[in-house]
Amino acid sequence: MGYDLPMKHVFIAIVAITSIRRHLVVAGDVVQPSKVLKQVPAMYVFGDSTLDVGNNNYLAGLDVPRANTPLYGVDYPGSKPTGRFSNGYHVADFIAKKLGLKESPPAYLSLAPGTTPLVVSALAEGVSYASAGAGILDSTHAGTNIPLSKQVMYFESTKAKMQAKVGSTAVRILLSRSFFLISVGSNDLFVFAAAPTDVVALYSSLISGYSAAITSLYNMGARKFGIINVGLLGCVPAVRALNSTAACNDGLNLLAAGFDDALKSLLASLAARLPGLVYSLADSYSLSQVTFANPQASGYVNIDSACCGSGRLGADSDCLPNSVLCGDHDQFVFWDRVHPSQRAGELSAAAFYDGPAEFTAPINFRQLARKI
Ligand SMILES: *[C@@H]1O[C@H](CO)[C@@H](O)[C@H](O)[C@H]1NC(C)=O
Question: Which class does domain 2-370 fall in?
Fold first, then answer.
């Protein structure tokens, strides 16, 4: 683990590695301007901090979770903190790249309220409504994020502006071919686990909220849904740190698994009921299980600690400007005490887009993009 190394050496190593990386990225961009043809006209993104690209930077309030300060973004082009809870890109960016976009579409609140930038982006590449801390339930961390239901309302308002610009037929065609990426539920489960009550009632309200969101998007013209399920919540550094042997919390993992089962059933029933709806359910849970069982196979040396943080497992604090970083950021599954590293996002996107069939059902993201 990097935390025991003398700080000066760690710092020098990081400067060297990041400057080399930056040059590679720049060189790559110049030589290969997006070799991938656009697979879909646009991508619209909904969910939580696993997908947020900066919406929360525009929310008022001290309690709003934001990744807009170093050392977030240290490996992003220009070493810029963007609002992504990652050292660089995250899974939405890598999925976007696979779809032939430059990176995740921009944050809705960075475009609105000005109509023109919003419509231009919505028509050309898409919009991200994802918000860190958000849940399926409006009550989850209420007042400090954009809950799923409100993200869907923002999409509705976006659609109205698109229609005013290019007409409803063009918008209908565009939306039916576009990729709707959703990852949400973790925050609801974390909140529930802190004060557990009736788990059956919990699942039922989560599934009903998720169903309402997908159905609303469908009614507005969305057809292709790429849904990422909830991962091994009990294995994030912040949770492991609560255990004296740094073990995962099996109860939290079970809670997530139960939700994922219900989500799987929900999607099957929605697809049976809503003509033309197609989906790919990405199994973040089992991908984490496989990865944690054999970290070396994915190039990881550490699966239990935050690369950026402090104290035991790097989990005593968030990733802060004065945090001590691990050596090779790509060798850590986790960037901060809750969120995956850029490398983990890249490997997840690869697995969901065109990885082995075990990580997506009933089709993978590539097949979903090409549907119809
Ligand atoms: C730590 O994890 C182990 C293995 O899951 C478990 O048996 C033990 O009860 C946990 N300890 C605490 C304090 O939660």
Answer: alpha beta
